[in-house]
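Hi all, long-time lurker, first post. I run a small reading group and we've been trying to get comfortable going from sequence to structure in the token notation. Rather than ask abstract questions, I figured I'd post a concrete chain and ask someone more experienced to write out its structure so we can walk through it together at our next meeting. Sequence below, copied exactly:
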Amino acid sequence: MLARGISGVKSHPRVEIPALLSLYQAGRLNLDELITTKYRLEDINQEYQDMKEAKNIRGMMIHTDADR
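-- Answer (accepted) --
Happy to help. Here is the structure in token form:
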């Protein structure tokens, strides 16, 4: 299956996503530095407020079994 991104470039998600995941797990693709802020589930309202006010460009909601 081909997917077309915003730039019109064709990609193969079933191939490329596992490849990117392997690079990340091997420490060869550092995605962690792209995250601006991490939020816990109980801080979801603050996350939305920060996005609305452009304080958080790439936030991440941390969801664990303890949050359920």
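A couple of things your group might point at:
The CA atoms of residues 51 and 57 lie 7 Å apart.
The beta strands are 3-4, 10-11, 37-40, 59-62.
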